[in-house]
Amino acid sequence: MSTTSCSYAQSYGECAMVSTATAECIRSETKGGARPVRTAPFLGHGDPSDAARGDAMTEDQLLAELGRLYYLEDVSKVDLGRRFDLSRFKIARMLAKGRERGIIRIEIHEPSQNLPELADPLKTTLGLPLVKVVESKGSPAQVREAVTMMAAQLMRESLEEGDVVGVGGGRTMHVLGAQIVDPPAVTVVQLVGALPSTAPMAPLDQLRPGVEDAGGRVHTFGAPLFAGSVQRRDSWISQLGAVRELYEQLDLAVVGIGAWGPSRSILRTAYPPAVQEQLDDEGPVAEMLGHWFTADGGVVAQGITRMSVTTEIHQLSAAPHVIAVAAGGDKARAITGVARSGLITGLITDRHAAERMLEIAEAL
Hints:
With 364 residues, the protein is of the alpha/beta class. 45% of the residues lie in helices and 11% in strands. The strands form two sheets. It has a seven-stranded parallel β-sheet with strand order 1-11-10-5-2-3-4, sandwiched between helices. A four-stranded antiparallel β-sheet has the order 6-7-8-9. Helix 8 (171-179) links the parallel strand 2 (164-167) and strand 3 (187-190). Helix 6 (116-126) packs across helix 17 (351-363), helix 8 runs parallel beside helix 9 (203-213) and helix 16 crosses helix 17. It is elongated. Residues 1-48 have low confidence and may be disordered.
């Protein structure tokens, strides 16, 4: 075997010819305090080819790079093998190792599945043209995500360029805003002011990038839902001329439904105690866009609505499609009340709410 001499000054401490360096050579250079010889280039140095870059990476970095190229850029295993000087079988094993280590993660978001065995009888019971029911799996947050995924699917399938879409507020609408991807060039408008508890939630802000990239527009405003007085409400309304005009042109409104009752809730705590007492006296079971409904669909507490920044009843009635998205057995009475008002044309809900609504209908 050759005895090629080594020089620490060469190639950041490498032997002049690494391919022929002997163990004795390496040992001789490290006696006396010199750092050990590297047998691969430093990261970021050396040959810029893919094979050299692969040598320069740690194994985890290489697994991540292979995963990126294979799963995101559709580079075949054969081409990866050529680029990194590895066999395609080795590439396959490394991709599998990347998944085992959690470096490569594959997520599949299955479309929400409708449950016709509940949706069809509920459609008949509530007298609605459209009802979709999804499974009640997991936590309330997970169920909320499932119903909003169904709503997003329907919107992707039905929205057309130029449509005017109104969106309500609250937690469910906030989640929906993140679910809608690649929308057409539509005009989206905020339908209601924000409750103090939901002010940080901005469904339209999440929608804005996709809509504007498609050439559409998003119209929002910073008013509260409950203004506290008719005068303050009118002051806010006077500033929303362009938005209010869009309420007369709605092709679709997507709204949430809140349940009203004696128990502490986000909706209840958003109103001052005197208003809470007035609402308790009026007896609503549901709230939608600042309007209040009894169990049989009657509209009540209009004096409180008169102090709210929201869409008018006649504007909702004129919209061809008003879809409510709400879930949870605890909202069954609220959803039923809103449906009986005749203001919504469709409902997306979950199994627990659907089963409870059918039980309520049978008890009448």
